[in-house]
Design a protein that fits this description.
Elements (H helix, E strand, L loop, with lengths): L3 E3 L31 E7 L3 H14 L2 E8 L6 H12 L2 E5 L4 H11 L4 E5 L3 E3 L3 H6 L6 E10 L5 H18 L4 E5 L16 H11 L3 E12 L8 H17 L4 H29 L8 E2 L5 E2 L1
Parallel strand pairs: 1-4, 2-3, 2-5, 3-4, 7-9
Antiparallel strand pairs: 5-8, 6-9, 7-8, 10-11
Helix pairs in contact: 1-2, 5-8, 7-8
Length: about 300
């Protein structure tokens, strides 16, 4: 089992050889052109829903040095999943923090040892050969590389293509940390404001650009974002739209993009409810009650 760090002792440096995870990983042969190792950062809080699949994709597709977890004192199965990965790989660093996403990312950055680091959200799955594809973009003037975020619910190809174009435009202004590879030197000295529980990704991108580095968004590699079921309720859909509109007000040139984004959210909300209603009709004659999604996205009967 790994030792759990608290914020007070989280920044103590570690100097040891990177673990040999070759027996577990099925890494692409394309990694042979580089000896780069990556400290991967994942923020968690009751993240058991997709964490296992997320971390499997990280270990398959990233030449990982250490997995740095900043956990918000999870009370579900998150810590058990992390324990299992520690037992298999021996390179999990667990830090617990009661702060914001801004403070959690700052703590993790302070812990990094490698030349490059990577942020991965706990509810995404990386595409195959993520790092091999990104490595081709790791030029001297590049401070960060962001892979396209694709919502798992998008099945209509026309809407998917529209979503990708809009998402790319928004990232160029706002940034994102779904699957963000960052040069450590580009965030040297950064102090992310503690109050930034949202838009801390925008702060990070802005910092990197102000340091004179280029931030590259790309369609390849990419990640699939498995948002929880609760996102497609009317309350959460409105909250998502409202958050995006607040950012758009600060950047009027993005207003049209966020309007289209909002339309996609409304479309997915409507589609989700239509599919749920059809499923209830199919199951109506077989069960007395329909399983409803819990807040964590899992189904409860």
């Amino acid at each position: 089992m790994f030792d759990v760090k608290t914020v007070e002792n989280a920044t103590a440096p570690h100097h040891k050889e990177p673990p040999n995870t070759a027996n577990m990983l099925q890494q692409s042969s394309e990694y042979e052109f580089t000896n780069t190792r990556i400290d991967v950062i994942v923020l968690t809080k009751n993240s058991e829903r997709l964490l296992n699949e997320c971390l499997k994709s990280v270990y398959r597709n990233i030449p990982i040095n250490r997995l740095i977890i900043v956990d918000g004192y999870s009370s579900d199965g998150t810590l058990q999943i992390l324990k299992e990965f520690q037992e298999k790989c021996g390179n999990v660093v667990l830090i617990q923090d009661k702060g914001t996403r801004g403070s959690a990312r700052q703590i993790a950055i302070n812990e990094v040892e490698t030349e490059w680091l990577m942020f991965v959200d706990s509810d995404v799955v990386l595409c195959d050969d993520w790092f091999a594809k990104a490595a081709k973009l790791m030029k001297e003037n590049v401070g960060a590389i962001w892979g396209m975020e694709i919502w798992s619910v998008l099945k209509n190809m026309k809407i998917l293509k529209l979503f990708e174009r809009i998402t790319m435009k928004i990232f160029r202004k706002r940034g994102g940390t779904h699957d963000l590879l960052v040069r450590r030197k580009a965030v040297k000295g950064i102090q992310i404001p503690f109050h930034l529980h949202t838009y801390e990704d925008a702060y990070i991108k802005s910092w990197i650009c102000q340091k004179g580095y280029e931030v590259i968004p790309t369609y390849e590699p990419y990640c699939i974002h498995y948002r929880p079921e609760i996102v497609w309720t009317i309350k959460e859909s409105i909250s998502l739209i409202a958050s995006d509109i607040r950012f758009a007000i600060r950047y009027p040139q993005l207003l049209l993009s966020y309007t289209v984004y909002a339309a996609i959210v409304v479309y997915q909300y409507a589609l989700h409810n239509i599919e749920a209603r059809q499923l209830r009709q199919v199951l109506g004659s077989k069960v007395s009650g329909f399983p409803r999604p819990a807040k964590d996205g899992r189904m409860k009967v």
